[in-house]
Amino acid sequence: GEDVEQSLFLSVREGDSSVINCTYTDSSSTYLYWYKQEPGAGLQLLTYIFSNMDMKQDQRLTVLLNKKDKHLSLRIADTQTGDSAIYFCAEKENNNAGNMLTFGGGTRLMVKP
Amino acid sequence: NAGVTQTPKFQVLKTGQSMTLQCAQDMNHEYMSWYRQDPGMGLRLIHYSVGAGITDQGEVPNGYNVSRSTTEDFPLRLLSAAPSQTSVYFCASSYSSRGGQPQHFGDGTRLSIL
């Protein structure tokens, strides 16, 4: 079946860049998403990328997609303490009639002042 | 615009009890779904609906029922609660199930089964 993997933990200093990585196994993935979850809250959509793109930038966020290696990354520039959260990547398959997302286990980002 | 609203936010049940988790959206979204979130496992799809009157099973449907009598509401029923169903439950919706329509999530229901 499909598999989406992320590292568990990332710690950075305030003002540095953060890079959160994700790998997936399904070559038919069409859309890939990044969600942010703060403590006790739901998932907030940050950005998403279509599989025919290799980069998308949105203010401090840059998504890079290497479709050949099935590798997705989220770069947060000038990381702030408010960016501390769990970040999930998720993918949607091309033949998925039900809009089902397959999620990674989440990366906990800790930003130190 | 409230978005996706889930109630209750917290619930404690005894093994064998039944209950319904409520989910409502006011965005006229066609697609709605239920996920459960367990530590280190991301979210797993329980059931989904592509429109009123249509439901289907996701990855982990056992022990749960759903119905979709209106576009706005998509309740999740636990028939006979078990400790393995202790989890955080999220409802999500999107405009359609086609293309890359992003899903919008509620704040979750934290459920403990004793």
Features:
heterodimer; A: 113 residues; mainly beta; 6-stranded mixed β-sheet; 5-stranded antiparallel β-sheet; 0% helix; globular; B: 114 residues; 7-stranded mixed β-sheet; 4-stranded antiparallel β-sheet; 11 strands
Kindly report the average pLDDT value of chain B: 93
Number-wise, the strands of chain B total 11
Kindly, what is the distance between the CA atoms of the first and last residues of chain B, rounded to a whole number of angstroms?
A: 36 Å
Rg value of chain A: 14 Å
Helix and strand string of chain A, N-terminal first? EEEEEEEEEEE
Low-confidence stretches of chain A: none
Number of helices of chain B: 0
The helix-and-strand class of chain B reads mainly beta
Rounded to the nearest angstrom, the radius of gyration of chain B is 13 Å
**How would you classify the helix and strand content of chain A by structural class?**
mainly beta
User: How many angstroms does the end-to-end distance of chain A come to?
Assistant: 41 Å
